[in-house]
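Listing S7. Sequence submitted for prediction.
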Amino acid sequence: MYKIDRRTFVTAASAAALFSSSRVGAAEKKYDDGVSDTEIKIGHTCPYSGPASSYGVIGKAHQAYWKAVNDRGGINGRKINFISYDDGYSPPKTVEMVRKLVEEDKVLCIFNALGTAPNTAIRKYLNAKKVPHLYVGSGWSGWGDPKHFPWTIGYQPDFQTEAAIYAKHIMATIKDAKIGILMQNDDFGKDYFEGFKKALGNKSDQIVQTVTYESTDPTVDSQIIQLKASGANVLFSITIPKFTAQAIRKAADIGWKPVHYIDVWGTSVATAMKPAGFENCQGIITSQYLMDPSDHKWDGDADMKAWREFMAQYMPGANTADMSYPSTYSVDYLMEQTLKRCGDDLTRANLMKQATSFQDFKVPLLIPGITVSTSDTDFYPIQALQLARFQGESWEQFGSVIHADNS
């Protein structure tokens, strides 16, 4: 049925033209798997259980965001069917769940699946199937490889760029640095380490000890003891929140007070710093690309106010100090805009085209001066960060925004 606004006078000729143009518009609709006139299916995996279960809130935050979108009428009249499965942060399980999403649920794309190793395990499969693997929930530098993996694109600043910023800050501010590194023994840890060592250049011999842990380990206590014994006066922790908290606590317990740097993924106030004890976290350094809700300087920001209203309505009772929530909100917004730009051409090829066509695009909750830019040769949407230091019970930014090209 074609509805005509009663306030507009329509002649028989113009009504016929309207009917004709509507038929043409309908004929121009292009859909791939997961799309109909009323629905868009999006696939996702997340560790709701297992060693990285603290990230399970990310999946719940996605669900809340897409519910809000649907409550507003969806995207171009289509409701979002967000299908999220638990992969336990286990790559074999991720492969199983993603195959189910693609082959049984028939989703249009995989969006913001979490974790470096889980996403590495599904990348070849999704690219062979030509299924968009969008805004990956990991900063591994390998996501920006359009030549070999044209269907996979990252989102956050990549690990190597972030690590290079820490390395250069250490060289500029700490005399006679002796660096100890605690790293997760997978692509997540190795990518950070490679970027860090590369940035140190001929000063890489300042790394006096590197110790690893497995994501399934119960604690990192023995690793921290090893690092103190090495004589290190600087610690770079490449850790997820559970192990960040353990490392900070153990260092305090044994009286070790290195200058401590932590990767952005391990710095949640709610799930890392608070469990570690705020008194043990003072002066720790990280970097940020998002506004931190625990930093009161953002209280008057319009985007922060809108986010808090969203959280109050769709995630009441959630811990708003957990950076997983603003991170998820920002990438969901980008995905929503990507789908909107597709219009009625909801093919996988067009979805990928739109995802790689943003220029200096402002996304809510990104720190001022940081925007999203992509192209068919640039699959790194965000390439800037700002250093932050833990003070009191929150992170406080210092210095200026640092872009990848000058990190």
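Caption to Listing S7: primary sequence and predicted structure tokens for the chain studied. Residues 192 and 372 are 22 Å apart (CA to CA). The longest strand covers residues 39-46.
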